[in-house]
Amino acid sequence: MEEIQKTEVTTNPETEDVIELTKQSVEACDEQQKQQAQEDGEKRDEDEDELRKLLLSDIGELPLIPPSATQINFVSYFITDFTKSGHDQYIYRHANGLCVIGLAPTHIAFKDEGGITNVDFNVGKSDRSVLKVSGKRKKNALRSEPNTALCKVSTAKDTYIVRCCVKGSLLEVNERLIMQPELLNSSADREGYIAIIMPTRPADWTKNKESLITLEEYKEKKEKVQSAETLEPCML
Amino acid sequence: MSDETVPAAGDSSVLVNGLVSHGDSKTRRVYETARSLHSGAVKDLLSLGVCERCIFRLIAVEAFDSDLSSVSTSTLHSWLESGDDETGSSESNCSRICIVCLGILQFVFSDAAEKKLVKSDTSSDYVARVTDLVKQDLHDFDSFGLEVSVPSTIMDNERAVLSYLKEKYSTEGWLQRDKISVKDALKVLILDPLKASLGAQSDSSSFHIRLTYSEASDEALGVSKTTHESKRRKTDAENGSNCTSENSFEKVYEPCIFSVHCNKMPIFFSGRYFKYSRNVSQSRWIIDDERMGEASVEEILGGNILPACLGDSYKFHAAGREDIDVRMLGSGRPFLIEVQNSRQCPSEQSLKEVEEKINNSEKKLVGVKDLKCIGSQCWAMMREGEAEKQKQYVALVWIARPLEEKDFNSISSLKELKILQKTPVRVLHRRSPLDREKIIHWMNVEKIKGHSHYFLLHLCTQAGTYIKEFVHGDLGRTTPSMGSILGCRAEIIQLDVTDVKMGD
Fold first, then answer.
1. B376 vs B368: CA distance, rounded Å
2. B323 carries an active-site annotation
3. In 3D, which of A25, A22, A26 has the Cα closest to residue A8?
């Protein structure tokens, strides 16, 4: 802020000058303040522009269909004809070891007319949908073996048992399937997942893996089975 | 007894026989205390092998104070001997390690670094040594706190000698007084000279000098023996038997191993950081000996601040965190760097240089601003950035169908949208399975020229919201999600944090 110069007030004509001088100084101050505010505003705009440039600069090539979150974060495994013919399931394994279990598109339940109409988690010794796993240590989780039953899925024609396929602790079942079994028909590989299992030891998973096949192997197998039905696009 | 060693009243010259200070009232007082001690007890303790200063500590009625530090060990010895010609020359007695303080109050020790025996007759030699060692550590300080650590067997040694004295001199008054510990006695002796020699004040400051005495090597054996012996002695005393004899004090007493350590309380730096790279983690991330990502914010910031402080190590604390593939832009994220044992507090200029070095580095991975030294209010500042605050983001989103006009409005009309997020699968292995309710305060859609399936989503959310899961739905475990709102599959391509509000 410019210092307002103090000049001695002597005679009238000089007073006029003084007043003029003071007015000019005050105006100069105002100007400066306005300028500062404008500069601040400009700086804000500049910052925002900088930010926009940064945000947009990073957008490189954008593919038509990007890989899905599942494809990026999980490794897909499959098991076919598990305990019974046509019982094909997927095991999506995350980098942190957790396995998401669900029905593979070639599961015979999908071949029945009308698709899946009911899902019941009350199998084996307990209702899987009421388990309450708590805490970081995952207390009260059901210890599962590959053969442990997860749920029963029913169609108009028949009922099929879905099993864990993985040895570990059962962390969660998808209870939304109880009210919305149609999720299995529309997106069995995403919203229609059946359960999440945490293998307890690395050794358990290594042993498990031996009975599973990769995505590539699964695709080959499917092609061999001359199925009349078109494959779900969500598989890709 | 020669007259030379008796300090005359008002005599201010340096006398012979080791008197290191003026022959003034202090030394006179000590001399008089020496003469007033129970001569039988003194003779007993001297022959047992208790050192001169311990004798003062244990049997003098007068308080043990800093006057004693002005008198050398050999002078003290000659004052205590008082015409006892049979005890031989002072040399041989002075060379025995005290059976109570293990040489600590005799200023005798074995140097930890040089591994040789060091003897000082006076406190000033000892203080000079300590000063040298402190100066070697290059700390910059005007005040210090003095800490002394001594072996635990000294307690046992003292107990043994006291119980011997109690038996023999049970009627004496000087036995009843509380005895100053070896630790405190050493502090009393050297604190003032040390203050003068270091040119500093003494207080409970942030800088500590620790003098550590530890028992010589085969202490394991010595300790158990001593404890066993003292236990035996105690039960014997209870039984009323008189088997405490001078034989139980016949042990080889080794001088202690001595070392000096300086430690400064941690100092803190605050600032805001930016992360421009999608391959840099927030903190050092190493799995199976392999580093995840190219670098870490923690190491870039800490690695540049640490040398400016000449510190030993650093700790990094941030107000929240972002994934390795998420950039931190906008106003930056508040952080703290805690530096352990810094030798100097960097000037504003050097902090500016650190900022410039980081901001102008070739790779431009991380940026920093407002770097400054901060005091104890730092934690309050960090707490501010936690749970209640809002965060702003920009996400690049893809949807399975083309963007329509109505979408802009249907999204921006959602204010304070409540969402329920189950613990995301990607962190479920280490976090509790919970349902977390979060709020999306506002959202805006921005078209991207030439792309009908992609758009920029600007959003402001409650702290703790998982943005990626809000966009792709996390297998339906986050509801509502971008996909459920728009009625189609949605994927998040990349994410940037644009504001971490700290509440002004």
1. 21
2. yes
3. A22
CB-based contact (8 Å) between A190 and chain B?
Answer: yes
Interface of B with A in 224-283 (CB under 8 A): 276, 278
How is residue B161 written in tokens?
């000698």
3-state secondary structure of A168: strand
Run of H or E residues at A198: strand A195-198
A137 vs B482: CA distance, rounded Å? 31
Contact in structure between A200 and A132 (CB atoms under 8 Å): no
Task: Supply the DSSP symbol for B89.
Answer: -
- To the nearest 10 degrees (0 to 180), the angle between helices B182-198 and B52-59 is 120
Structure tokens at A55: 């945000």
Angle (deg, nearest 10), helices B52-59 and B39-48: 140
**DSSP secondary-structure letter at A43?**
H
DSSP string covering A109-158, please? GGGSTT-EEEEE-EETTEEGGG---BTTTTBTPEEE-TT-EEEEEEESS-
ipTM confidence score? 0.79
A89 min Cα distance to partner chain B (Å)? 17
Residue B163 token pair: 């119980």
Q: Is the pLDDT score of B338 beyond 90? A: yes
Cβ atoms of B90 and B78 within 8 Å: the answer is yes
What is the predicted pLDDT for the residue at B240?
A: 44
Containing H/E element for A36?
helix A12-57
B476 with A171: Cβ contact below 8 A: no
**What are the chain B neighbours of A202 within 8 Å (beta carbons)?**
none
From chain A, pick out residues whose CB is under 8 angstroms from the CB of B432: 134-136
Tokens coding B229: 């012996």
* 3-state DSSP assignment of residue B326: strand
Contact call for residues B161 and B153 (beta carbons, < 8 A): no
pTM of model > 0.80: no
Per-residue pLDDT at B372: 92
* Partner B contacted by A214 (CB < 8 A): no
Taking only the tens place, the pLDDT of each residue in B49-79 is 888 888 888 888 888 888 888 888 888 888 8
Q: Is B475's Cβ below 8 Å from some Cβ in A?
A: yes
Identify the CA nearest to B487 among candidates B395, B403, B396: B403
Put simply, whether A198 touches B (Cβ < 8 Å) is yes
